[in-house]
Specification:
Chain lengths: 355, 544, 528
C-alpha cells in the first residue's frame, strides 16, 4: 500500500517510519535546522524544523514527527518563519563572536552562518548573557574547543556516543548553564576521546574546529575540495582533501562515502601533514662511492635499469625480485608485477601482506 | 551494610537491582559526603555507564555534586511563599546554606533540607524535624475521595490502613478480570491528576495491550511544581493508598514491577514509603515495588525525563512518539501515574465508578486536590469537587487576611501564570481555566495580596523556570534566560516598547516551539504580568 | 570480507578474534559498537584486554598462539550439543563427518589447559555463537601472523560453516585488511602464484592469455614469497625492486633482513621518504604520494574506489606506474606505453575477470564490489550466497601446534606485537603528523602492573627486551591491558625496532611470519 501525505499543497509519497523532516528533505524542502545530523537519532532540540500539521495543537518538530497517512503539512508559513527568525535571533544573541566563521573549521561549520543570512539575524536582538565556556587551553593540537560559538545542539556529544560509541564528552550542568565537557572537565587527551574528529565535523557553528586546517587560514587562495580515499587501513573511508592552491590544508569526511558514511578516525582525519613534509624525497638519488647523491631522472632510471639488466645477465632472470606496495594504488602494484613478468618472464613478485 | 562500606560492597548491593544509578549515587554520596571522581569511576565501571555520562548526569541534579562536603550543606527553600516568610534571611543566617527551589511545604514554616533530614523553621527559630502538616479539617463537609481517611490516626501504618478499609479494594480487584477494572475506572472518569488530565483507564489499557515486557508501573512522586504539596500529604499520611493503587494498576495492566520516583526534597517520605512497603508485603504479594529518590530536578516530574532519570540516563525529556505506554522504562510498556491519581483508585474500586464521578459538580467528574498557600489564613491541601468556585475556596475555606485584597493568584503552581482579581470568578476545572488562558495543572494555587510586588514575583518565577530548564530545547534554554534578564533589568538598555516586544516575541516562540511543558507554559508568567499589571510594568520600565 | 562493511551493524552475535579493531580499523569498529547498542552480543577472543574486550559481553583471554585449541573447543561444544545448522551442513558443505570425528578430542577442559580460558567460558561462547540468527566473525592479523595462520583461518571457517553463518546478511568470515590497498595489490597480481585477478600462473591457459596480452611467456612455476626471497638474497636473488615498503622495520628478524638486503648486487627503492630500507638502496626513485596521485584503492570489502590528485607532487616525484614504465622501456620493453593511471587501470580490468565489468569511469563513485564479471553486473557485496568458489564448503581438520618458540627459563615472557590507534606501520606517515605524534611520541612496552613490580621495572623507566635474535631498549608502561606474563609493543617506532626480536617461524603454507608470538626476556635497564 502506498502512503501519501500533503506537503505544502503537493501530495507526496512516503515510507513507513520516515519522519516529516525526511519526507520534506527528500522532496527538496530546505527546512532549517541546527541540531539535525542524518546519521544521528533526531533530538528535537533546536525546534527550527517545526512545521504546521493540520489538526495538531501547535507546530511540531518535523525531525521527530513520524509521517502519517493523510497528514496535511505546511513547512513555510508566515508564523513559522517568524518563530524561526526569533529562534535564530535568540541563538545568535548568545554568540558574541557572530556566526561568520571560516569553513576550515569543519564540514558543517557554515550552518548557523547560513541561517543568520537567511533570517537577517545579526545577534543584536535579544542581547544578553552568553553561555559558552571556551576551552582554548586544551593543549591538544587537533581539536579547537572554542565554545563561545557553542549553541548546545549536542551534535558533538551525540556523534561521539551514537556514531563512535566512545562517550568521551557529555552534557554537564543544565539550562543556560549547560556545557559540553569530558568527565570532570579534563582535557580531551585525558578522556576517552580518540580524536576521530567527528565532533568537529558535525558542529554547525565551528565551535569545534580543525586546528591543523586552521593554520592555513591566512593563505589567500580559495578552498578546493577533492574527493579521495583515506590512505591508512583497509576500510577505505571516503574523504575530501581540502587544498588552497598547491597546499594541502585539511581533510574532511565524505558523508556519502560508501564505506564510512561520514565516519573517520584520528589517522584519516588528522594525520595528513606528511604529504607535504620537508622530509619528502624530491629528487632521485643514486649511490656513488658509497654515498646516496642527487641525480637526474635520466641518470637514476638508467642506473636502475642497467643494474637489473646486469644482474639478469650474470645470475639469470629469476634473480630479480620485486616487492609491490599494499599502500600504493592499483596502477603501482599492477606495474610492479608487470615489470617482473614482462621484463624477466618470472613470477618473482610479492607484496607486503605477509608482514 | 557496614558503616563505611567499600566501593565494591556498594556496587554489589545495587548493581543487579532495577534502576540502580540513583540509589548508588546516593549511597556513595552518603558515605563520602560528595561524589568523588573515584566513586564515579567505580560506579561507571560497575554499571557499565560511560564515565562522562555519569559525571554529566551528576552535574545536572541540584542536590548531588562532586564538590567535597556538598551533601551536608543546608538547603533553604526559596519558593515564592517561603520568600514571603523570610527565607532569604534564613539563608543568610545559616552557615554554608544554599538556596533550593520550592520544597513543597508551603503550608509550614520554611523547609530546610540537610542531607536526609527535612527541617522547618523561621529566621531566628530553632529548626525542627516534624511530620508534615495534615490537611485542614474539611471545611464544608463536602465528600472527599483521596483525603477521606487521611486524618484518621495511624492511617500511615498498615494496621491503621486496613482498619479504615484499606486493601479491601485490592482484594476485590484480585477477583476481577483486568477488563472489569478498566471498565470501572473508565466509567469513573478518573484522569491524570498530575496535570495532564489523560484518562487513566485509556493509559492502562494501552499498557495492557502493548507488545513486549516486562510491563512497568511508575508512581510519579517527583512533586516539584512550586506551590504544590498535595502529593506530599498522601505520601506521608496515606502511603498504603498509593501502594494499593499501584497494585490495582498492576492487575489492570499486567505489570508486576513498579517504582515510586520520589523527589529528593521529601527525605522523611522515603522512610515512610519504605516502611509501608515492608509492612504491606503480604498484601502486595506478586508485586515488586521500590522507591527511587530523585536528586533535585524539576524536569524529572515530566514523565519521560523521569524515565530517563530512572534508567540512569541524562534526564532530558524524550521525544514522543513513541509514548511511555509502549516504550517507557527501558523501552518496556510503562504506566506513569501521579500520586493523587493512584490514591484515587482504591476508593473508586471500593465505592464504585458512579460514586466517584458524582463527586464532581455539574458535568465534571471526581475531585481534585488543591494546594493553597500564600496570603491566606488557612493554607493547606483541600480536596474540592471538580468545577468548584475558586472564590469559595479562597475566601470561605482558606480565608484572606483581614483588610487585604487578593491582587493575583497563581494557577498550576507557577505554570499556569497569574489570574488577576477580576479573574477570580472562575470554577476550578480545565475548561473554565483554559478559557482564561491558564490551566489547573497539578492544582497548586498561591495567593498574593495587595502588599506584594507582582513584577518581582514574576521575576522570581521566571528565575525558577530558567534554573530548572533542562537545556535540551533552544527556545526554553535561551528564552527563560532572556526573560529573567529582562525582568531583572527592566530599565536596562531597551526602551519600553522594545522591551515589551522582545518579552512578547520570546514568550510566543517558547509557547509555540518548546519541546515540553516547562518551556511552553513558563511564558504564561510574563504574558499574564503584561496583561494584568500594565501599570506596574510601565512603572518598572520607566522608573529606577 | 565475505560480507560488506554495511553489514557490520546487523549481526546479533559478533565474534572478534585477533583483531584490535577499535585501534587498527576504528571506523569499522564504530559499526560493531552500533550493533552492540542495538543489542548484539559481542564475544572477543584476544590475549590482551584491549578496548574491544572491555566492551565485550564475553572476553576469551587466550594465551597467545593457542587459537586452534580455542576454536576447536568451541566447535566441539557445538557438535556435542547438536547446535549445528544441519540443513546448511547437508546442502552446502563436505567433510562434516571427518571434522566431527576430529573434534572429539577438542574438549573445553583440554582447551582450558592450553589456552587458559575457563572451559565454562568457552562453552558459553560456543553456545551463544551457535544460537545466533546472524553470527559474524571478524579477524585480523592476530589470526594470520602465526605459524598456524592457515589452521586458524580454517578453524574459523569450520565454525562459520557448521553454524550456517555464511552467505547471509550480518554473517560471514570477515578478515579486516590492514593496509589501504593490500587487497588491491593482491588483486593486481603482485603475488608469486597468480596473475592479476587471482588467475594462477601454473595454468597454461593463463600463461597463453598473458603472453598474448604482454608478449612475454611467463614461467608456469610460481615465484618465491618475499620471506624466501630475503632468505635467498645473495644466493638466488641478486637484485630487488622494493616499492613503498619499509621492509627493514616492518618485517621480522630485522638484523637478518638488513644483512639480506646488503647482500644484494642491486637494490632499487621507490618511495616517498628516505626510509631505513631506502638508505640501503643503490637507487632511490621519488614517488608521488597520496593526494598527489590519481589511482584506485580496493578496500577490505572488495570495493575499488578512486583516489585523486589534489596537489602537485613534491619536487620531481612521479607516479609509480610512470617510474616502472621508464625502467621497463630502458630494459627494452614496448609494453608500458601509458599516458595516465586510467590507462593502466583499464588494462588491468581487461585482463581480470573479477574486474571485467569495471573501468576507470565506472568506479568513479565507488559503487561496486568485485566480482563484477560484466558491464551490466551490479557487483557482489556478499560472497558465498549460493555456493562457494569450489562449489561446496570444505571442512578442514586442523590440529593444534605450539608456537614456533615457547617460553623457557631463558625467555620466560610472551611478547605479542600489533598496532596502536595513533600510528600506522612504520610511522613514515603518522610520525610526520602533528596530532598523532603529539599523543604518542614514543613507543612503550605494555607490562602488567604485577609484572612491573615482579621484574623490578618501573613505570616510565627503561627495560631491555631480548629474544634469541637480539635485544631492544624500550620504555615501560604499566598497564593491565596485557595479562601477567605477556607484554605488548607496536612495530611502529624505528628506535624500538621490535622486529629485531621477532621471526621465530613462518606459516608453512603462506610464509607469513609469526609476528604475534615471540618469547622474550624483560629486564630493567638504566634510564637514558
Amino acid at each position: 500500500m502506498s502512503l501519501d501525505l500533503t506537503l505544502d499543497g503537493q501530495v507526496v509519497p512516503f515510507q513507513e517510519g520516515e519522519t516529516l523532516y525526511e519526507v520534506a528533505h527528500r522532496h527538496g524542502d530546505k527546512i532549517p535546522t541546527l541540531c539535525y545530523d542524518k546519521r544521528l537519532k533526531p533530538l528535537g532540540a533546536c525546534r527550527l524544523c517545526v512545521v504546521e500539521v493540520e489538526g495538531a495543537n501547535g507546530p511540531l518538530a518535523s525531525c521527530t514527527t513520524p509521517a502519517r497517512e493523510g497528514m496535511v503539512v505546511r513547512t513555510v508559513t508566515e508564523d513559522l518563519e517568524q518563530h524561526r527568525k526569533t529562534l535564530v535571533d535568540l541563538v545568535l544573541s548568545e554568540n558574541p563572536k557572530g556566526a561568520e566563521i571560516t569553513p576550515l573549521r569543519g564540514l558543517a561549520s557554515q550552518e548557523l552562518a547560513q541561517l543568520s543570512v537567511r533570517y537577517g539575524s545579526d545577534g543584536t536582538r535579544f542581547a544578553g548573557a552568553t553561555s559558552g565556556h571556551p576551552r582554548l587551553d586544551d593543549p591538544n593540537p587537533m581539536i579547537l574547543r572554542d565554545y563561545e560559538h557553542c549553541i548546545s545542539c549536542y551534535r558533538c556529544v551525540r556523534v561521539c556516543a551514537e556514531q563512535e560509541g566512545d562517550y568521551a564528552i557529555s552534557i554537564t550542568g543544565r539550562g543556560f548553564g549547560t556545557r559540553i565537557s569530558a568527565e570532570f572537565d579534563v582535557d580531551l587527551q585525558d578522556s576517552d576521546c580518540t580524536f576521530c574528529g567527528q565532533c568537529v565535523q558535525t558542529c554547525p557553528t565551528g565551535a569545534l574546529g580543525d586546528q591543523l586546517a586552521l593554520q592555513y587560514t591566512d593563505l589567500p587562495e580559495p578552498i578546493n575540495a577533492t574527493r579521495s580515499i583515506c590512505p591508512y587501513c583497509g576500510v577505505g573511508c571516503s574523504v575530501d582533501l581540502l587544498t588552497k592552491g598547491e597546499t594541502l590544508v585539511g581533510v574532511q569526511p565524505a558523508m556519502d562515502g560508501p564505506a564510512n558514511e561520514g565516519a573517520l578516525c584520528i589517522k584519516g582525519q588528522f594525520a595528513w601533514e606528511w604529504v607535504q613534509h620537508p622530509d619528502r624525497l624530491k629528487e632521485p638519488l643514486v649511490r656513488k662511492d658509497g654515498e646516496l647523491v642527487p641525480a637526474s631522472w635520466e641518470e637514476a632510471l638508467d642506473r636502475a635499469a642497467a643494474g637489473f639488466a646486469q644482474t639478469a645477465a650474470r645470475h639469470g632472470r629469476q634473480s630479480i625480485y620485486a616487492v609491490a606496495s599494499g599502500r600504493a594504488p592499483h596502477e603501482s602494484a599492477y606495474s610492479v608485477q608487470k615489470f617482473i613478468r614482462v621484463n624477466f618472464g618470472s613470477n618473482q613478485i610479492d607484496n607486503c601482506s605477509r608482514a | 551494610m557496614p558503616a563505611s562500606p567499600t566501593d565494591e560492597q556498594l556496587i554489589t548491593r545495587w548493581q543487579d537491582e532495577p534502576a540502580p544509578l540513583l540509589p548508588l549515587l546516593h549511597a556513595f554520596n552518603e558515605r563520602d559526603g560528595h561524589l568523588s571522581r573515584e566513586s564515579l569511576e567505580a560506579i561507571s565501571a560497575g554499571l557499565r555507564i560511560p564515565l562522562a555520562e555519569v559525571h554529566g548526569s551528576v552535574t545536572f541534579y541540584h542536590h548531588i555534586s562532586d564538590e567535597p562536603e556538598s551533601r551536608d550543606r543546608p538547603r533553604v527553600c526559596m519558593g515564592p511563599i517561603c520568600r514571603l516568610n523570610g527565607s532569604e534571611q534564613l539563608l543568610h543566617d545559616l552557615d554554608g546554606a544554599e538556596p533550593m527551589a520550592c520544597a513543597g511545604r508551603c503550608d509550614d514554616p520554611i523547609p530546610v533540607l540537610q542531607a536526609d533530614r527535612g527541617l522547618v523553621g523561621r529566621p531566628g527559630d530553632e529548626l525542627q524535624q516534624v511530620p508534615s502538616p495534615l490537611p485542614p479539617p474539611n471545611p464544608a463537609g463536602i465528600e472527599e475521595c483521596c483525603l477521606a481517611n487521611v486524618r484518621e490516626p495511624d492511617r500511615a501504618a498498615c494496621s491503621g490502613y486496613v482498619r479504615t478499609g484499606g486493601y479491601a479494594a485490592l482484594a476485590k480487584a484480585r477477583a476481577m478480570e483486568p477488563e472489569e477494572i478498566l471498565q470501572v475506572l473508565e466509567a469513573s472518569g478518573l484522569a491524570g491528576r498530575g496535570g495532564a488530565g489523560f484518562p487513566t483507564a485509556t493509559k492502562w489499557r494501552a499498557v495492557r495491550d502493548a507488545q513486549g515486557g516486562p510491563k512497568t508501573l511508575v508512581c510519579n512522586a517527583d512533586e516539584g511544581e512550586p506551590g504544590c504539596f498535595k502529593d506530599r500529604v498522601l505520601l506521608d499520611h496515606d502511603p498504603h493508598a498509593i501502594l494499593e493503587g499501584m497494585a490495582i494498576a498492576g492487575l489492570a495492566t499486567g505489570a508486576t514491577r513498579g517504582f515510586i520516583y520520589l523527589r529528593y526534597e521529601y527525605p522523611q517520605t522515603q522512610a515512610i514509603l519504605e516502611r509501608a512497603l515492608e509492612e504491606a508485603e503480604e498484601h502486595l504479594d506478586g508485586f515488586e515495588f521500590c522507591v527511587r529518590r530523585g536528586a533535585g530536578a524539576y524536569i524529572c516530574g515530566e514523565e519521560t525525563s523521569l524515565l530517563n532519570s530512572l534508567e540512569g540516563r541524562h534526564p532530558f525529556p524524550r521525544n514522543r512518539p513513541p509514548f511511555p505506554v509502549t516504550h517507557g522504562f527501558e523501552q518496556t510498556p510503562t504506566a506513569v501515574n501521579n500520586v493523587e491519581t493512584l490514591a484515587s483508585v482504591a476508593p473508586i474500586l471500593h465505592r464504585g465508578a458512579e460514586w466517584y464521578a458524582g463527586l464532581g459538580l455539574g458535568e465534571h467528574r471526581g475531585t481534585k486536590l488543591i494546594s493553597l498557600s500564600g496570603d491566606v489564613e488557612r493554607p493547606g491541601n483541600y480536596e474540592i469537587p471538580m468545577g468548584f468556585p475558586l472564590k469559595t475556596l479562597l475566601f470561605d475555606w482558606a480565608g484572606v487576611p483581614e483588610g487585604r485584597t487578593v491582587q493575583a493568584v497563581t494557577m498550576a503552581g507557577l505554570s499556569g501564570g497569574f489570574l488577576g482579581a477580576e479573574d477570580l470568578d472562575v470554577t476550578l476545572d480545565e475548561a473554565c481555566l483554559r478559557a482564561k488562558g491558564s490551566f489547573l495543572g497539578a492544582g497548586g494555587i498561591m495567593a498574593f495580596d495587595d502588599r506584594r510586588d507582582m513584577f518581582e514575583i514574576a521575576r522570581q518565577s521566571m528565575e525558577f523556570f530558567a534554573s530548572e530548564s533542562c537545556g535540551k530545547c533552544f527556545p526554553c534554554r535561551i528564552g527563560t534566560e532572556r526573560l529573567v534578564e529582562r525582568l531583572g533589568d527592566p530599565s536596562g538598555p531597551l526602551d519600553p516598547a522594545a522591551w515589551t516586544e522582545e518579552v512578547r516575541a520570546i514568550g510566543q516562540a517558547m509557547t509555540q516551539l518548546s519541546a515540553c511543558g516547562l518551556g511552553r507554559s513558563a511564558p504564561l508568567i510574563t504574558e499574564s504580568l503584561l496583561r494584568l499589571f500594565p501599570a506596574e510594568v510601565s512603572g518598572k520600565l520607566g522608573a529606577e | 570480507m565475505s560480507n560488506p562493511l554495511a553489514d557490520m551493524d546487523k549481526p546479533d552475535v559478533i565474534f572478534c578474534i585477533g583483531t584490535n579493531m577499535t585501534e587498527a580499523h576504528p571506523v569499522a569498529a564504530t559499526r560493531l559498537k552500533q550493533a552492540q547498542a542495538k543489542g548484539a552480543i559481542l564475544i572477543v577472543a584476544d590475549p590482551r584486554h584491549i578496548p574491544l574486550a572491555r566492551r565485550a559481553d564475553l572476553h576469551l583471554q587466550l594465551q597467545v598462539g593457542t587459537d586452534v585449541a580455542l576454536l576447536g573447543a568451541m566447535a566441539h561444544v557445538i557438535a556435542e550439543r547438536g547446535l549445528m545448522d544441519e540443513a546448511f551442513i547437508a546442502e552446502r558443505t563436505e567433510g562434516w563427518d571427518d571434522l566431527r570425528e576430529h573434534l572429539k578430542s577438542f574438549t573445553p577442559q583440554w582447551a582450558e589447559e592450553i589456552t587458559g580460558v575457563p572451559a565454562a567460558l568457552i562453552e558459553r561462547a560456543a553456545v551463544l555463537f551457535a544460537q545466533a540468527d546472524r553470527g559474524a566473525i571478524y579477524y585480523t592479523l592476530g589470526i594470520t601472523e602465526h605459524i598456524s595462520g592457515v589452521d586458524n583461518v580454517q578453524s574459523l571457517s569450520n565454525l562459520a560453516l557448521m553454524t550456517g553463518n555464511l552467505g547471509r546478511e550480518g554473517t560471514g568470515i570477515n578478515p579486516m585488511r590492514g593496509q589501504n590497498n593490500i587487497q588491491g595489490a593482491g588483486d593486481c597480481g603482485a603475488l608469486p602464484s597468480s596473475y592479476p585477478g587471482f588467475q594462477p600462473v601454473s595454468d597454461p591457459a593463463m600463461q597463453a592469455k598473458f603472453e598474448e596480452a604482454w608478449g612475454t611467456k611467463v614461467d608456469l612455476e610460481p615465484g618465491m614469497t618475499k620471506v624466501r626471497a630475503l632468505e635467498h638474497a645473495g644466493e638466488k636473488i641478486y637484485a630487488m625492486l622494493i616499492c613503498g615498503e619499509n621492509t627493514l622495520v616492518s618485517d621480522p628478524d630485522k638484523s637478518h633482513c638488513e644483512r639480506a638486503l646488503e647482500r644484494l648486487d642491486h637494490l632499487v627503492v621507490i618511495d616517498i621518504f628516505k626510509t631505513e630500507t631506502a638508505e640501503l638502496a643503490d637507487v632511490i626513485l621519488p614517488a608521488s604520494a597520496w593526494a598527489e596521485t590519481d589511482g584506485v584503492f580496493t578496500n577490505t570489502e572488495r570495493r575499488p574506489q578512486r583516489v585523486r590528485a589534489a596537489v602537485s607532487a613534491q619536487g620531481q616525484a612521479r607516479p609509480d606506474w610512470w617510474i616502472l614504465a621508464e625502467i621497463s622501456k630502458r630494459l627494452g620493453s614496448d609494453r608500458f606505453e601509458y599516458n595516465s593511471a586510467a590507462e593502466v587501470f583499464n588494462e588491468f580490468c581487461s585482463l581480470s575477470p573479477l574486474y571485467a565489468g569495471l573501468d576507470w569511469d565506472r568506479i568513479d563513485g565507488g559503487g561496486y564490489q568485485w566480482p563484477v564479471p560484466a558491464a551490466d553486473h551490479p557487483g557482489t557485496p556478499m560472497l558465498h550466497v549460493d555456493e562457494f568458489p569450489r562449489g561446496k564448503g570444505l571442512f578442514k581438520t586442523p590440529s593444534y601446534r605450539d608456537p614456533a618458540e615457547v617460553v623457557s627459563e631463558e625467555f620466560p615472557v610472551w611478547l605479542t606485537t600489533g598496532r596502536r590507534l595513533e600510528h600506522y606501520h612504520t610511522r613514515t606517515m603518522s610520525g610526520r603528523s602533528t596530532g598523532t605524534e603529539y599523543l604518542v611520541p614514543e613507543e612503550t612496552l605494555e607490562v602488567h602492573p604485577a609484572d612491573v613490580q615482579a621484574w623490578g621495572l618501573k613505570h616510565g623507566g627503561m627495560a631491555r627486551m631480548s629474544s634469541p635474535r637480539g635485544s631492544v631498549l624500550v620504555r615501560v608502561a604499566s598497564d593491565d591491558t596485557s595479562p601477567p606474563g605477556t607484554v605488548f609493543c607496536s612495530f611502529s617506532f624505528s628506535d624500538v625496532p621490535v622486529n629485531i626480536l621477532t621471526g621465530s617461524g613462518y606459516d608453512p603454507i603462506t610464509d607469513t611470519a609469526e609476528l604475534k608470538v615471540c618469547p622474550v626476556r624483560v629486564e630493567p635497564a638504566p634510564d637514558n
